Amino acid sequence: MYLYSSLLQRQAEKRPIRVGLIGAGKFGSMFLSQVPTTPALEVTRIADLDPARAATQCRGVGWAQERIEATRFVDDSADLIASDDVDVVVEATGDPAAGIKHALLCSEHGKHVVMVNVEADVLAGPYLAQKARQAGVVYSMAYGDQPALTMEMIDWARSCGFRVVAAGKGTKYLPIYHASTPDTVWSHYGLTAEQAAAAGMRSQMFNSFLDGTKSGIEMAAIANAADLQAASAGLMFPPCGAEDLAHVLRPRRKGGQLEFSGQVEVVSSLERDGRPVPRDLRWGVFCVFEAPNDYTADCFSQYGMNTDQSGRYSAMFKPFHLIGLELNISILSAALCGKATGSPITFNADVVSVAKRDLAAGEMLDGEGGYTVWGRLMPAANSIAANALPIGLANEVKLTCAIKRGEVVSLDDVEADRSQQSWQVRLSMLGTFTDN
Q1: pTM for this structure?
Q2: Are 58 and 35 in contact (CB under 8 A)?
Q3: What are phi and psi of 44, to 5 degrees?
Q4: Long-range interactions of 56-62: CB distance < 8 A, separation 24+
């Protein structure tokens, strides 16, 4: 894409790319730390629930006082999106309802949007991306986050003529983690609550990484952007290191563990007994692909590719991701090339709410990473057939009946204000991207 040379040209022309950031949390702060060393990139506005805290964050990541004084810190995100001094909006709130609102406002005001907010993308991304395309703007996954990095590998493989067999990421996983709550999360990370608080780590957010919810969300985003599929039973989290990807992530009929070819999956950095997996991909992403013919398979061998026993399956992987430190790639791709670093095109996969424990009628669900439910990946057709409650709508809604541990919560099991924008957009998305 030659982004850097284009940046230098914009710098010479004194035409910087102007960014508005919504949400100055950890991801946003990592992005902000890169701004002073990126030519022709300016953050003109930052919207946060606490503008003063956002300014302090900028100081903490190395911004000079002059840069801070030149930036507008506001609490009105709608005003940021409508402003004339913003070309690209970065949505980093992590709140599904807020993400939907902001993405639609970006389309209305002709602004590119980079959606760090994967929660909103999985709840209604295909609809939001369609609205952006109709408005002539870019709706993009956030490079640096694992879904966009995986999409880059998928695009590489398909553009080279390979068939993608599996794609996804690594994580630390054991089955008991599905029941983890904000009260138990830090012991699994080897931290005390005091250490986590001192580092500014929020227990509910980090619990969503541990209890399987974030993995399901990220794999649904990949499935919907790459037209891949979710397994009927959801994620398996097989223990697997980098050297074994091509062996483990083959279809079962070929000796692997996949339900079928063209599947998203997450591999665990732990064996089921807790032992570490050698050469694990806890922080990384991968793409498993198949040679289309014998000649290509021979080339795999000749050039030292890791393959399964047949020599037909191989894998590319990246052992790490740098989150907000890499976000510039999405911003520049949108502003300079009019291209997304991944964007939903279909509705193949969903993330549904599953009870962490026996829940009583009248209890309030507390959403992603909380005490009551975790998010399980499910084929979209199965989610629709089950009338399942998406994890993105499972916050501050009341149960109307008891739900057993491990059961999927239905839309009919909750009392909620369905006139809210997030509920209405979800319904519009289903009407547009399903046959129902």
Answers
A1: 0.96
A2: no
A3: -85, -30
A4: 57/24, 57/28, 57/29, 57/32, 58/24, 58/32, 60/29, 61/29, 61/30, 61/32, 61/33, 62/33, 62/36
Q: Examine residue 355 and state whether it is found in any structural domain, yes or no.
A: yes
For position 139, what pLDDT does the model report? 98
Query: What pLDDT sits at residue 292?
Result: 96
Q: Are 429 and 122 in contact (CB under 8 A)?
A: no
Does residue 203 fall inside a structural domain?
Answer: no
For residue 62, give every residue at least 6 positions away whose Cβ sits within 8 Å of its Cβ, in sequence order, or none.
33, 36
Look up residue 233 and give its two tokens.
Answer: 């039973």
Q: Do 332 and 353 lie in a common domain? A: no
With 80 as the cut, is the pLDDT of residue 148 above it?
A: yes
Same domain, 277 and 363: no
Would you state the pLDDT for residue 1?
56
Range of the domain at 153: 147-173+212-321
Kindly give the interhelix angle for 213-226 and 203-210, rounded to the nearest 10 degrees: 70
Summarize pLDDT for 277-322 with one digit per residue, the tens.
Answer: 999 999 999 999 999 999 999 999 999 999 999 999 999 999 999 9
Residues facing 414 on adjacent strands: 399
Encoded tokens for 262: 């063209």
Domain count, the chain: 3
Domain final residue pick, 337, 368, 401: 337
Q: Residues 36, 155: one domain?
A: no
pLDDT digits (tens, 9 = 90+) for 100-129: 999 999 999 999 999 999 999 999 999 999
Both 249 and 275 in one domain: the answer is: yes
User: pLDDT band for position 200 (50/70/90)?
Assistant: low
Q: Which CATH number fits the domain that encloses residue 406?
A: 3.90.1210.10
